[in-house]
Write a structure and sequence with these properties.
Number of helices: 10
Distance between the termini: 57 Å
Structural class: alpha+beta
Strand content: 25-35%
Order of helices and strands: EEEHEHEHHHEEEHEEHEHHEEEHEE
Number of strands: 16
CATH superfamily of the largest domain: L-amino peptidase D-ALA esterase/amidase
Largest sheet: 9 strands, mixed
Number of domains: 2
Shape: globular
CATH architecture of the largest domain: 4-Layer Sandwich
Length: about 400
């Protein structure tokens, strides 16, 4: 069997998390379930908040084996700071494991919704029969799961793509949520991914950690992170490709597809079905290290500089210098662009005067790109944010 090939393009397809072979889904009444037909390689990244929810604690333990059968999510009331929260999370996992005929440790669990109201596991357990009996592999089943995890979301969020690894057609799908409390602190939201790529658990975890760090962990809406943030991925290994077991060229191609998928997840969350929501992209290039590039891009996105359709260059520079890194701006170049219009804000470290009307025109575009070239090295990073339409 020859090694995988080179097509890096993603082709949108239907199916969501059910697009890759081996997966079923269902959702109703604030309960969602994505399940594999058997125990599959799985990986996860979780909230790094000082206080984490019980589902995160339980899922982190369960995923240590590198394998899982299913992930269950409830919405409405979050299992955070609850008395006996972990016990109730484990009770749900155990009840679901009985229905799926697997071990309790093969179930991952996540929770989203209001923090504070009483979380009642017994009510959830009563809904598991309907959830498991209604599992299916259609596009509609994936939509049902995505709809069930919505909280403040205005739109159902799912996507799926096909891509080639040599002679093998592979698929990847996702259901996710995120409209508020979205801030770089690992995972950033609730997101479940499925793929049919043949890959070991160790390399799947490595791929997810890298791709999440470059995408979801560079996304910021409001400076708030949830203690229940969870992103996980399952691999059915059904695509037939050469098994990915080390960081070779095939692994890099899979990481590229996964990273592009998660980038689309970020863009979908930014829009949230609202055409007035604008995408802000801050791209840092020419940094002396990856750490510096990431810190500057994240600091600028977090500053929320463009909410009033205007820009003060000194505010932008303050945001850059607030990144906590020693920056030499003497060679810096900064440009702002949108659609067919672009302006230079800084050249060779010197601030350039610009037209306020031109800035306003750029800030009216659907996607706005702020490019910061530090001219101090070879590293780059991209951060993403939202300019909410309701503020105009």
């Amino acid at each position: 069997m020859r090694k995988n090939g080179v097509n890096r393009e993603l082709e949108p397809i239907e199916g969501g998390v059910c697009a890759p072979a081996g997966f079923t889904a269902n959702g109703a009444g604030g309960l969602a379930l994505i399940a594999g037909e058997k125990r599959f390689p799985a990986a996860g990244v979780f909230s790094q908040s000082a206080v984490i929810g019980a589902p995160v604690s339980v899922s982190k333990r369960h995923i240590k084996s590198g394998y899982a059968r299913a992930v269950f999510i409830n919405s409405g009331v979050a299992n955070v700071c609850q008395e006996n929260g972990e016990r109730e999370a484990k009770e749900i996992c155990g009840a679901l494991a009985k229905r799926l005929h697997c071990d309790t440790e093969e179930i991952l669990i996540a929770s989203t919704g209001k923090i504070g109201p009483r979380f009642q596991a017994e009510e959830i357990v009563r809904g598991l029969d309907f959830l498991t009996q209604g599992l299916g592999a259609s596009h509609g089943h994936s939509i049902a799961a995505a709809r069930a995890i919505m909280t403040t979301d205005k739109a159902v969020k799912q996507l799926s793509f096909a891509f080639d690894l040599g002679d093998f057609r592979c698929k990847i799908g996702a259901v996710f949520k995120g409209n508020a409390r979205v801030c770089p602190n690992m995972a950033t939201t609730l997101c479940v991914l499925t793929t049919d790529v043949n890959i070991t658990p160790q390399m799947l975890q490595k791929a997810l950690s890298f791709a999440t760090n470059e995408t979801l962990n560079m996304l910021n809406f409001d400076g708030l992170a949830s203690p229940n943030d969870t992103t996980c991925i399952f691999s059915s290994r059904a695509a037939g490709n050469y098994a990915i077991s080390c960081a070779d060229s095939e692994y890099k191609k899979f990481v590229s597809a996964l990273q592009k998928t998660l980038f689309e997840v970020c863009l979908t969350m930014i829009k949230d079905g609202d055409s007035t929501n604008q995408t802000l992209v801050c791209q840092t290039i020419g940094a002396k290290s990856k750490r510096v590039a990431r810190a500057v891009a994240k600091s600028v996105i977090s500053a929320r500089l463009f909410q009033d359709k205007a820009l003060q260059t000194e505010d932008l520079l303050c945001a850059m210098l607030s990144a906590g890194e020693a920056l030499d701006l003497r060679g810096a170049e900064i440009t702002l662009s949108g659609k067919n219009t672009a302006i230079t804000l800084m050249m060779d470290g010197k601030v350039i005067a610009f037209s306020a009307s031109t800035v306003s025109e750029i800030l009216s575009c659907e996607e706005i790109l702020l490019c910061i070239n530090l001219n101090d090295g070879n590293y780059g990073a991209t951060a993403l944010g939202r300019i909410a339409g309701k503020t105009f």
